[in-house]
Amino acid sequence: MAKILSKSGITTGNTVEAFHVTQSVDAFTGIDAYDITISGSLTVSGSLNFNGGVTGSSFTGSFVGDGSGLTGVGGDSFPYTGSAIISGSLEVTGSVNGRLNKNSITIDNSTGIAENISGSGIYPGMIVSVDLSQSNTNIIRLALSPITEYKLGARFEFYIAESPGTSAYLRVDTDGVATYQGNFLAVGNPFATSGSTQVNNVSGAGDVGDRIVITKISEDYWALEGAVKNGNKYSAS
Questions:
Q1: Residues 6 or more apart whose Cβ sits within 8 Å of residue 215
Q2: What is the DSSP string of 54-117?
Q3: Residue 51: pLDDT over 90
Q4: Which helix (H) or strand (E) holds 229?
Q5: Which of 163, 176, 175 is nearest to 202 (CA)?
Q6: Which of 51, 93, 227, 230 is most buried by a 10 A CB count?
Q7: Where are the domains of the chain?
Q8: Would you call the peptide bond into 79 cis, given omega within 30 degrees of 0 as the criterion?
Q9: Which of 173, 103, 104 is nearest to 140 (CA)?
Q10: Nearest one of 120, 99, 235, 117 to 180, comparing CA atoms
Q11: Nearest Cα to 213, choosing from 184, 178, 187?
Q12: Strand order of the sheet with strand 179-188?
């Protein structure tokens, strides 16, 4: 049990004993555990350590400083389970594991893209708006990760938001092991594929509103579906 600083024996005219002074030194240097109550303001120009915890009323003032040395504040340190509210901006300088709670994303061909699909911020469950009008020549080529890295039912949906330039197109590759199986519904010229490892709109072709949906249905196959105006404007190989 923590000790309490005592004023016993400290009176006018009496001798100040050594323990009257050393109890305070022991309390503030941590040699002995004392209960200390502060009923005003506290200014700390060095470090402040709590070896026994803080009890009593909650802190209702303000903390001045950058907080860089604070750890385990309120028990809400990371990893954190529960709901969190950020009323401002959040900058992540490292990596983020898992998918963000984001349902849609827009990509365009203002620059050519040739990378893993997650490199463009696209994760299963997202609807991807594809603008192919920013360049006549830049293509968007996305590669799926190995199919074993996705859960069954993992789904990507792409739709053409702006018509492609004369040589622009969207292409989505599998890992080369898993293949596409399926067909597109089309107003004209239905499109079907079996055993293909890539799908794309034909260079410079494709209509606004065309949709391509890719869903993992086994450890070997992606279901390839679509709803397009003209199946002749798409190919798979």
A1: 153, 154, 155, 156, 222, 223, 225
A2: --SSPP-S---S--TT--SGGG-PSS--S-----S-----S---S--S--EEEEE-SS-EEEEG
A3: no
A4: strand 221-230
A5: 163
A6: 230
A7: 1-38, 104-236
A8: yes
A9: 173
A10: 235
A11: 184
A12: 104-108, 127-131, 155-162, 211-216, 221-230, 179-188, 191-196
Residues 6+ apart with CB under 8 A from 193: 180, 181, 182, 183, 199, 224, 236
| 90 vs 227: CA distance, rounded Å | 37
Name the residue with tokens 């086994």: 218
Amino acid, single-letter form, for residue 210: D
133-138 mean pLDDT = 96
CA dist., res. 58 & res. 56, Å (int): 6
Please give the structure tokens belonging to residue 229.
């105006």
Is the pTM above the cut of 0.90?
A: no
Please state, in angstroms and rounded to a whole number, the distance separating the CA atoms of residues 147 and 218: 9
User: Measured between alpha carbons, how far is 191 from 226 in angstroms, rounded to an integer?
Assistant: 9
Cα distance between residue 158 and residue 208, in whole Å: 11
Predicted local distance difference test score (pLDDT) of residue 38:
74
DSSP category for residue 52:
S
Beta bridge partners of 159: 129, 211
CB-based contacts of 105, cutoff 8 Å, min separation 6: 120, 121, 122, 126, 127, 128, 129
Tell me the average pLDDT of the chain: 83
**Tally of CB atoms within 10 A around 217:** 14
98 pLDDT higher than 50 = no
119 has pLDDT over 70: yes
